[in-house]
Amino acid sequence: MTDNPYEASPERRAERLAETAPTECDVRVERLVTELIGRVADKWTMIILEVLEEHKELRFTELARKVEGISQKMLTQTLRHMERDGMVTRTIHPVIPPRVDYRLTPLGLSLGAAFCGVWIWAEKNLTEVEAARTAFDAR
Amino acid sequence: MTDNPYEASPERRAERLAETAPTECDVRVERLVTELIGRVADKWTMIILEVLEEHKELRFTELARKVEGISQKMLTQTLRHMERDGMVTRTIHPVIPPRVDYRLTPLGLSLGAAFCGVWIWAEKNLTEVEAARTAFDAR
DNA sequence: CAGAATCCTTGGAGATACTG
DNA sequence: CAGTATCTCCAAGGATTCTG
């Protein structure tokens, strides 16, 4: 993974790169995709996505209540990330007391749809997973 | 979230529970599902799933090489979790040097399929997310 | 080779207090 | 109300070493 300073020769190095890098650019894209997955396949992100899918629009405290178990800090943080990634819009109403509404963008909705399969899978296979666990633990 | 010791009366408490707990059992299931999602929507789990989907069967070091950036510790750990959850079988060949093969179970395969939508989403929307980020940062 | 064990660091995350 | 700022702490995870 780290550069090998003892590479035999430039030729050898080119050879090695040719082996490990099918089109060199694909690798870069693949890495970006992987990184994006890492960002997006996060527990809180998934749940917030889910909640915002159900209730079109929610304000901060409503989210805090609906999300169950999230700390205020993590909520803010996750929402910021989601906003930055274009998943969520954040509209501030200049009133007192302040009011901020969160709502999914089309991009966020599409991700929610993509995750839908995982939720369904989890519901459908919950008992099977639990069975596997107890079987594994009893050993 | 924590029990409120100042609940006015048993009646009031029952009322509150009726509000927050549509069928009480659903909540339990929902929590289990959420917890399962938290377990399964993990970066390394997703990637290992992906890799094992592509190459039917891999041994430990092969996985370590294919997974790119994972430490040996995390690989072992994640594989154990996946095995415990019934995603993966671990077959030990009693030879010297030792050889251990990992392969997805039907359950693992089904989860991989469920995640497939997310991978596709990530590939398709990578540029849009990056655009959103730069737009957000330039502010 | 396939791990287990150990040590060590960092940043993830909670709790609390403060502010526009 | 909707956050930001600060302090703190624990555990996730990396690096390294050891072993059947």
UniProtKB/TrEMBL annotation, chains A, B:
Keywords: DNA-binding, Transcription, Transcription regulation
Domain HTH hxlR-type: 25-130
SUPFAM superfamilies (alphabetical): Winged helix' DNA-binding domain (SSF46785)
InterPro entries: HTH_HxlR, WH-like_DNA-bd_sf, WH_DNA-bd_sf
Record carries keyword rRNA processing: no
Protein name in the entry: MarR family transcriptional regulator
